[in-house]
Amino acid sequence: xxxxxxxxxxxxxxxxxxxxxxxxxxxxxxxxxxxxxxxxxxxxxxxxxxxxxxxxxxxxxxxxxxxxxxxxxxxxxxxxxxxxxxxxxxxxxxxxxxxxxxxxxxxxxxxxxxxxxxxxxxxxxxxxxxxxxxxxxxxxxxxxxxxxxxxxxxxxxxxxxxxxxxxxxxxxxxxxxxxxxxxxxxxxxxxxxxxxxxxxxxxxxxxxxxxxxxxxxxxxxxxxxxxxxxxxxxxxxxxxxxxxxxxxxxxxxxxxxxxxxxxxxxxxxxxxxxxxx
Amino acid sequence: xxxxxxxxxxxxxxxxxxxxxxxxxxxxxxxxxxxxxxxxxxxxxxxxxxxxxxxxxxxxxxxxxxxxxxxxxxxxxxxxxxxxxxxxxxxxxxxxxxxxxxxxxxxxxxxxxxxxxxxxxxxxxxxxxxxxxxxxxxxxxxxxxxxxxxxxxxxxxxxxxxxxxxxxxxxxxxxxxxxxxxxxxxxxxxxxxxxxxxxxxxxxxxxxxxxxxxxxxxxxxxxxxxxxxxxxxxxxxxxxxxxxxxxxxxxxxxxxxxxxxxxxxxxxxxxxxxxxxxxxxxxxxxxxxxxx
Lengths: 277, 292
Ligand SMILES: Nc1nc2c(ncn2[C@@H]2O[C@H](COP(=O)(O)OP(=O)(O)OP(=O)(O)O)[C@@H](O)[C@H]2O)c(=O)[nH]1
Ligand SMILES: Nc1nc2c(ncn2[C@@H]2O[C@H](COP(=O)(O)OP(=O)(O)OP(=O)(O)O)[C@@H](O)[C@H]2O)c(=O)[nH]1
Ligand SMILES: [Mg+2]
Ligand SMILES: [Mg+2]
Description:
Helices cover 49% and strands 15% of the residues of chain A. Chain A is built from ten helices and eight strands. Chain A has helices at residues 8-21, 26-42, 47-62, 89-102, 119-130, 143-156, 174-190, 209-221, 239-247, 268-276; strands at residues 77-82, 107-112, 133-135, 161-166, 197-203, 225-229, 251-255, 263-265.
């Protein structure tokens, strides 16, 4: 993309294509390119320097100032996992459970998706894989009741980390968002400080709607971090740049596959590498 | 929204009557921005605005007394033209039992859509048989089995230790024996770049010669929609697309991208989590939604 000697207009257009096709969105891309153009007015930058300047800007946008992910800071440490349908919540919880168990934590999974067909069975299999405790009720029961029981059990059993799986729901459904707020309220009522982490799961293949999702879930619950899944595909997940800039939400983990070990901590350098090649 | 923005651009025109190069450029830029914000693919947007510009520089707009209206009309027409102007149907003739194979990325809504299609087909007096062919995802077979119980449609008793190709063959035999006329086969979510799993789909197709291969795509998919759709289409020659989760507020530009790169019709849209939430695709409604 930069190997030919084009005009600076060409380079900027090429960079625009790189950013937009990585799902950074027009607004974020134009803002970034606008800043780059200003620098061009003060010094003659070649295409490689332009690219690096852009990389640096995006990198600093992603370096969000937020408290670290610290599961040892409370006991039981409660993680609530939320997001729209099909993004990878249940699978990510399974992976996280495996990782925490690997770090010597006693983990409990709470099956608070009481709605979707076989959601409880799906999480049960992940709990078995990771050797986690498992709390469930019957399908169609109240998710708040599941969470209540899980927290009582966690306190009694000396559990280190509780991870709560919730049903996927579109952020546009007010009653479902209310249900989630209620689940969170029950948690804080039963355990001071809970939930200690509210993780929003975003699918890397999602376009600009991811920003609306982040805004809505954040407004409703106070999201503390993001898990960006399916980065093993060809999508770049650039939506997190605008989200970091606007909402200051850190990406805690990324999903790079469907197996228990396919969870990584977010690495800005690798992320930028995938976008800029 | 775009119509408002365009009317602002063309308001300036009314004073001078005809369109000039500058307001045409501005209008094209507004269209481009609206489509990109709606997640239409970058290259698809370029081709689309190119097509609009070609028509807009002709006498149709330039000589018109209401160039603004003409321009908006062209944008709408071009969009509906690309989306497919008529309603596409399922082609289930010629085979007994007929079979639909649902394919797509992880989490796009295949299993749920399989159940929805069963309800849809039963409402058209067909006799569907659901076939769980996902042996990888934890509790995938249970999920479709549960849905089948909810809607009272029989579900093939697949097992996780089976090969999906064998499942499909056995299910077809079973459907014939039971007098079911339509198989709805739910496959595992997979990446378009996973050669082994893409080959599995090719083997399924070879084994049962499906009436339709339907790609299930999430309406909130971004720029990657073109990569995914073109690869699935290239390897399997899909018959149509079902766009899911349109009950959200994603603009759905992926619909335009997918149609533009595959040339295949979007046949249905998923508009909710319940098994009755399936509707036929309306290109004009989708065009309005994308334009914002
Ligand atoms: N390739 C890939 N697939 C993933 C990843 N994370 C999850 N998946 C797959 O995405 C699909 C959906 O995952 P789930 O965990 O069921 O998603 P969910 O958000 O819990 O879905 P709902 O509860 O129905 O809203 C499954 O097929 C997972 O295996 C990932 O990082 N990479
Ligand atoms: N709101 C809404 N949710 C949907 C729609 N279609 C499917 N879903 C939900 O999306 C999630 C994923 O659906 P699945 O049917 O499990 O998706 P899948 O493609 O079979 O997933 P994998 O088998 O893991 O690839 C579930 O929570 C469904 O209830 C839709 O049209 N609208
Ligand atoms: Mg789930
Ligand atoms: Mg499925």
